[in-house]
Amino acid sequence: MPEKMVAVRKMQPGRGFDVVEVPLPELERDQVLVGVEAASICGTDLHIWNWDDWSAQRIRPPLTLGHEFSGTVVDVGKAVSRVRVGDYVSAESHITCGMCFQCRTGQAHMCPSTRILGIAMDGAFAEYVAVPEKVIWQNDRSKLSPEVASLQEPFGNAVFATNAHDLSGQSVAILGCGAIGLFSVGIARASGAARILGVDLNDYRLGLARKMGAHQVLNATGAGGAQGIADWLVRNNDGLGVDIVLEMSGAPSAIDAAFRGVRNGGRVTLFGIPSNPVQIDVAEQMIFKNLTVLALHGRRIFDTWYRTRWLLESGVVDLTPLITRQLGLEDIHQAMELLASGEACKIILRPGADYSHYSGASVQETSGTTAARGAIHL
User: In the prediction, which pLDDT does 365 show?
Assistant: First the structure.
């Protein structure tokens, strides 16, 4: 075991990340040490890279980034009982207290004492990461490649939001085709939605929405605001408001369009997070339309993970079209610039170590996996 490792860290306030060499994490009694095979970059990481107001208030440098990953267990703490060296794993990034009202009533995803990997503690943009045993998730290497296994954490958000409704035979509009919105398109298609309409401001993402199963897409730039978007939804749904709207962007105009474009008696899920307060005419846009409105965040721990496992392992939803590139840790600057440009969806960091001597299987054995240091287009 080496004494040091390479990690992507936020060393000080301001824009950017640093690639540095740091000591391996020291394991606590209840932790496991995972050799990271793949780590996916999240929109939250982009916020931290840009050092926006949220990041300045929440992040305390120095910090190793990253909370979406897969890898092989290479060491375990003295109190670890169920996880073994050689296990192929991912992890729930939200580490909850286990004792509050929410945790004890099956709502741990709303625990007020949650600590998040890569936000409040060192994360997985590194060759190794230490995480508590209680958040470890066992993977099947024969069914999930490292890059897809690393996407289970964010994919679970889409599973939670999208499966809140019975989508079979329904018309579904997805407003905001970032990664979570695109995941939702794939889930809606797999769930038997009759018509899927995708709306975004970015043609690249709209192209991915079509690949994931959207029947029609709209670039909302110049569409005429919320009413224009709503009119487009109606025109592309046989002159009727859509049955279900998943608002995944948090943009005020998209939230307005969601309520305008859904049919009377329809359903709206609000999942995107607005940057500022949003005004809604509750009487006209909710009450008089007899809407069912859900405001959701995160995913159920671990209920959603079991649903996620089946969708991905069965091949019902294929996430590989959304993996834009795979890069090494040293390519983090290129990766962040690409994400900021809007011409990428999910970028996977591959630290490059071979953990086959722990698991008895090469990390390159699964289909779709390329050399860890290589950059590919899928």
Answer: 34
